[in-house]
Amino acid sequence: MRALLACLALLLSTLLPSRGSAHDFSPGVLSLRERSDGRYDVVWTPPVDARAGDALVEVVYPPPCSAQGGVVTCGPEGLAGDIAFRGLDGSRAPIVVTVRLRDGLRVEALATAASPSVRVQARGAGSVGRWLRTGVEHVLFGLDHVAFIVGLFLLVGARRKLVATITAFTVAHSITLALGATRLLALPRAPVEATIAASILLVSSEALRDRPTIARAHPSVIAFLFGLVHGLGFAGALADTGVGGGGLARALLSFNAGVELAQLAIVAVLLIASRAALSPARAAMARRVSCYALGASGGYWLVERTVDLLRA
Q: Rg for the chain (alpha carbons), in Å?
């Protein structure tokens, strides 16, 4: 993204006519990196335009931020509002703006004469909603996690045990999500992903059995054990976003809340579908077909991920 903005700035600068040489026209760069809550290291390179003479571009930070040397201090609420550029008239080159916050949020934008300001969202409003949405999307678009939840439902059915089973899964993956996100527990991703695939294959095969098994008798135990593995998968997804620093706890809670909302939505859909007006014979057939479909998917993912593991 930053490279794209820089290229765009360079393209704009080449399209604007100039009487000076190429060295007399270059875009500006403003980079802010949060080093502690409310304090930012600043690198500011003003734009250069020979036609503008000695006129300067001044960076105006939103209140209550104040700049001193190479540090901007904004207080406990952090940087929130419009960063404006006073003096950025039509003869000026554009400015590439990059803001990196400790919770992983990154703002990249281009300030021009037509739009001489860049908006940074308030810390709470921007990051909490972002991590909540990331958690929801990771479950809904991560077919293996959806498949495992469906497998638990097929194993338990719409019974009172379902609440205990989903709760056990939630508690387990919350534990390893926290441990993995804080780097207190670190395992290679490839075997974790392969084990997740194996969990789907196991649950679907157990759901097909008519005779009592340990998994059918104690589904919450199975859900808890495999939930520990799924939590490491969630932690890997959270780590991919680059979150760190003082915002980790907020990101972790918001991400986990998003995961839980998505799981509840899946269970709700399954409960509604189970109430469909199907004859017992058709309901049994639908359940069996679903188990075979889940098992085939789990088997495919297991082979695929095992091959990737062996190649690594």
A: 26
- Within 13 Å, how many C-alpha atoms sit on residue 122's CB side? 6
H or E stretch covering 25: strand 25-26
- Tokens 């804080």 locate to 182
- Report how far residue 238's alpha carbon sits from residue 218's, in angstroms, rounded to the nearest whole number: 30
Q: What amino acid occupies position 270?
A: L
Q: State the burial class of residue 51 (Cβ atoms within 10 Å of its Cβ: 0-12, 13-18, 19+).
A: middle
Contacting residues for 242 by C-beta, under 8 A, at least 6 apart: 104, 106
Domain boundaries, given as residue ranges, for the chain: 2-121, 126-311
> What is the reported pTM?
0.61
Q: What is the largest CA-CA distance in the chain?
A: 87
- 88 near 116, Cβ under 8 Å? yes
Burial classification of residue 210, based on how many CB atoms lie within 10 Å of its CB (0-12 exposed, 13-18 middle, 19 or more buried): exposed
pLDDT in tens, the chain (312 residues): 444 444 444 444 444 444 444 445 578 899 999 887 788 999 998 887 655 555 688 899 988 899 988 899 988 777 888 899 988 876 567 888 988 877 666 778 888 888 888 888 765 545 677 778 878 888 888 889 999 999 999 999 877 888 889 889 989 998 998 888 777 888 888 899 999 999 999 999 999 987 788 888 889 999 999 999 998 888 877 665 555 555 667 778 888 888 889 998 999 998 888 887 678 888 888 889 999 999 999 999 999 999 988 886
Cβ neighbours for 66, distance < 8 A, ≥ 6 positions apart:
72, 73, 74
62 neighbors 82 (Cβ within 8 angstroms): yes
